[in-house]
Specification:
Two copies of one chain form a homodimer. Chain A is mainly alpha-helical. Chain A has two domains: about 70 residues, Multidrug-efflux Transporter Regulator, Chain: A, Domain 2 (Orthogonal Bundle); about 55 residues. In chain A, about 75% of the residues lie in helices and about 5% in strands. The first copy, chain A, has seven helices and two strands. In chain A, strands 1-2 form a two-stranded antiparallel sheet. In chain A, helix 5 runs antiparallel to helix 7. At the A-B interface, helix 3 and helix 5 of A face helix 3 and helix 5 of B. The structure holds a DNA duplex (30 and 30 nucleotides).
Chain lengths: ~140, ~140
DNA sequence: CCTTGACTTAGAGTATACTCTAGGTTTTAG
DNA sequence: CTAAAACCTAGAGTATACTCTAAGTCAAGG
């Protein structure tokens, strides 16, 4: 039920430095401390770290995550702000996925091109092939 | 055919500061300068900036992009390194897309949950509903 | 010719997110 | 009881990617 900072570091893959930094930034406001000052993480705290990872991995800065935690702290009066935040984040994720898809196509063109170039020992020769000229025009517009 | 740094900034959405910074970091080694020192960007340079954006948007640090440009500069002897780099980048993109998908599902759960919470005026009440308990267990494991 | 705006370099400053160090305290295993 | 491992705080240092400033040069319109 109670974990030390080192145990949490192992569990989450974050360093103890990072965990202390997150607490200092207000991202872990629920952590208890023993009378002698040692942090004691609960299962709830681990779950919070999971949510922090989720928001971080989808591009939210720590300040944005802190805002969410502050709203959570303020209780049900901030439900609509939190809903709006998640809706915005959904849009951000979808836009990022779109962008990744577009750029994946460009990278995959480069893989096909360089595959041909390696086989022929020349990038110029490969680039001259009609197949690659057409794909380049379609993907890069030149 | 030749563009000033200001024209390129408008074209690409990057600032003139950023363009100079990229040149300083070795990301734009082909740019010509007039006898009086002004940068003249060619269409090829604009295309390079497009590739830089593509690699940057898919998570490659500027150092990695510089490595690619250095390999390009060295000619056909580095074709296989460049191929390997693009293949690695493809894997990175696919992993990132996977991660985004997983986290999108979590965010969308939160949207459904907060939507219900806003309607009821209480997060606790919404969280108690069997539908949300089940989804939470599936997505977050708790 | 002159002013205005865009350009130049070198170097300093900023934001974000860690990451580490120093010096000290607490816990745990033998 | 003691030594090693793990913990603590405060604050400094690092990496990345810009972003801006100062002081000056260049180019185009009137």
């Amino acid at each position: 039920m109670g974990y030390s900072i080192g145990q949490v570091a192992k569990k989450t893959g974050l360093s103890v430095h990072t965990l202390r930094y997150y607490e200092k930034e207000g991202l872990l406001p629920f952590i208890r401390k023993t009378s002698s000052g040692l942090r004691v993480f609960s299962d709830d705290d681990i779950n919070w770290l999971g949510m922090i990872e989720c928001l971080k991995a989808t591009g939210m800065p720590l300040k944005g995550i802190k805002q969410y935690i502050d709203w959570y702290h303020q209780g049900d009066s901030t439900l609509s702000q939190r809903l709006a935040m998640f809706q915005q984040q959904e849009q951000n994720i979808k836009a990022k996925m779109q962008e990744l898809n577009t750029n994946l196509a460009k990278i995959q063109y480069k893989i096909r091109l360089y595959d041909a170039a390696v086989k022929q020992g020349s990038l110029d020769k490969a680039q001259q092939e009609p197949e690659f000229r057409a794909a380049r025009l379609r993907l890069f517009g030149h």
